[in-house]
Amino acid sequence: MTDQTTPVPSAPESGYAPVNGLQMYYELHGSGGTPLLLLHGGLFNIDLQFGELLPSLAANRRVIATDFQGHGRTNDADRPLGTESLAGDVVGLLAHLGVPKVDVFGFSVGGAVALHLAIRNPELVRKAIISSVSFHPSGDREENADAVGEMKVEMIAGTPMEADYLAKSPHPDHEHLQVLLTKLGGYDTGAGGWTDDDVRGYAAPTLITVGDNDAVKLEHAVKFAQLRGSDVNGDFAGVPASQLAVFPGTTHFSGLARTDLVRDVVLPFLDAPMPQT
Questions:
Q1: Is the confidence at residue 3, as pLDDT, over 70?
Q2: Between vectors from CA 224 to CA 35 and to CA 192, what angle results, nearest 5°?
Q3: Which helix (H) or strand (E) holds 209?
Q4: pLDDT-based confidence at 2, cuts 50/70/90?
Q5: Average pLDDT over residues 221-244
Q6: Partner residues linked to 244 by β-bridges
Q7: Cβ count near 228 (within 10 Å)
Q8: 8-state DSSP, 138
Q9: How far is CA 123 from CA 35, 113, 195, 225, 277, in A?
Q10: What is the longest distance spanned by two Cα atoms in the chain?
Q11: Nearest to residue 200, comparing CAs of 234, 240, 228?
Q12: Rounded (to 5) percent helix, strand, coil in the chain
């Protein structure tokens, strides 16, 4: 049980940003503070990934939410899906909105993009929440590639992902949905990931979240946190700015489904003062 009440959401501002051949859909919720940028996972969109969390996240801050290429209300383009290109789209969106710095909360594919931004565009990122994604392929479970690479429209028939795609996409048919599934199956194929020094060296305090039965190995999430300075005796050394949260009874697709738990982990991290430098 929690004594927090869920705020009543107001209608968001929304629009489309012309970015890299896309009409990139975005929503603006709430006001105040450093804006929080929400980046969803593959096959998800703003509503499916963050809909239950948005009222709490936007209660005291500006929230910017967007649909990636081929997802939600954003059109697809004649290019593969990959972290670098999606990160470029996000940089373009922030420039379009005139936003110089954000906190970023990314799940799965969105987490990969959030990490890319923290490392390659550090001037844009104050804090990062990176959920259910590895920083190196060695952190992925062996069965992941086969499962994702073989995804067919029939496998998601009757799911919210299929229904939302057909309801919101600019090209709402199963042929385009299969194109998206195929692109997700080849997402970042052959990419080498980040080095330990890359992960250790960027500035943004980071909250790493993972399910205890996620697509990411638990030992990899622990290594991620260790590289960010966590895993110390905080009573003596102080609590590091970067943190690790393991959500119990949680798989990859249910990674943010326990709204109260996720909110109670995420909001204190965002609200905490920045460390003194």
A1: no
A2: 95
A3: strand 206-213
A4: very low
A5: 97
A6: 208
A7: 23
A8: G
A9: 14, 15, 20, 22, 16
A10: 58
A11: 228
A12: 40, 20, 40
